[in-house]
Amino acid sequence: MTILQIIVLAAVQGAAELLPVSSSAHVIVIAKLMGLDPTTPEMTLLLVMLHTGTMFAVILFFWNGWKKSFFSSRHRLIQTVKQVVLATVLTGVVGLGLKGIVERIAFGGKSKGEIELLFGNLGLISAALAAAGILIVIAGLRRNKNEREEITLKEACGIGALQGVCLPFRGFSRSGATISAGLLLGLARQRVEEFSFALAVVLTPPVIAREVLRLMKAQSAAAAGAGHLVQLFWPSLAGMALSFLAGLVALRWLSSWLEQGRWHYFGYYCLAVSAIVFTLYRIGF
Fold it and tell me: Could you tell me the pTM of the whole model?
């Protein structure tokens, strides 16, 4: 993997990760166009490290807002922690459950079949992009004059469960789905945006740990030396730094469009990209 390829992937990831257009779908398609295999442990680790860069961008961007809304008092903090923890637990239950079902269907119960092997399937990515696009358009076009600031525990759990549905499917935007769900529930745009990205910050570390273990297992099976393993991390660390910078720019764009009522435009974009990806799939790319 060349430094130019890392720069391109980091720029795409940083821009798309924090917009509701599925960064994974964009990065996978770009990787395939550059001749890279998105199903390898090295690539999945790079994808996760790019997510790490954007996670730090999220923390920096939302920190002041979180202090005012979620950390304003001891009671509010306890309530927020409870909502985030329960939502994340439901994300894990739903996500891992779906992961097992998909692997069983796709690989016929074979023990070595992992859902990551499907991450390069453009047909599945196209379908997931279309589903996310439709949800975003519906939520964006809905007009709710009485937006609520407070998120109930039941609503937080519902958003967490929906986030779990996104995990096994590259193309089904996590932020697009969770923010759209909040809008459909009648929640204030800024509040649901802050809650959605708070969930992302909590979810990212265990995903990173899983991919690191997956990479180490793959390298162990190949009897690779420790030096080679260290070399594999350097591209990911460089990409993380670049995606952090691109993520800050993307967050300003997302917040601006969300507040201005332009959320549905992201849905139209997802539908357009879905059509392009489907065309690539049909021609056997």
Answer: 0.82
